[in-house]
Amino acid sequence: MKFLLVFDFDHTIIDENSDTWIVKCAPEKKLPNGLRNSYRPGHWTEYMGRVFVYLGDNGVKEDDMERTMTTIPFTAGMVDLLCFIGENKELFDCIIVSDSNMVFIDWILKAADFHKVFDEVFTNPAAFSSTGYLTVQNFHAHHCPKCPKNLCKREVLKEFLNKQLERGVSYTRIVYIGDGGNDLCPVMFLKKDDVAMPRQGYTLEKKIAQLAQDLSPVECSVLVWSSATDIISYLKLLIKE
Hints:
This protein is about 40% helix and about 15% strand. It is built from ten helices and eight strands. The protein has about 240 residues and is of the alpha/beta class. The radius of gyration is 18 Å and the shape is globular.
């Protein structure tokens, strides 16, 4: 009996958006209007690439960025939840599927000593160039019309489950914990024994509610959370079953 926990990162594990938090490193902690207005829907990763060039041009170094990123607060109850999962790793496989980037997530998890809780992290690849600029790439190419160009979380989840099956690992239940609009696509892939846990008051909860109103509800169960202690309570019940 093994459960798979799938986490989003921004506004789920951490209580902020890591990509907008990095702006605290910019001169006067803001971006010029021209740069801010250059974002095109569905092309966030390219936009962040331009933000990182701007930071590099303004002399923002890797150390400055790391110091800033590791001040992001975790969501209420999340530290307790990750400790609980860490203590029960024989029951839970745990992955992150996020539209942030590998450098940010690595910094944050390692600073809090949570990197061992997660078996894999699927996010946009990032690295510092020889000139000290942070660069970011799209996670993959895909054909899903519902998702941003750089990442379809359903595709990531399907591929992960297929690889696990090849290794002889299947899951009693998948629990998907997220908040954003791009978490709806993987939630719609979940089956009736699985559970979607949208964060209260955020886009994912609203989109799931809208589907139910449109009489095309998601197949899985839905449990809303406001603090990660709600998630711990559910996982404790799951273990007792």
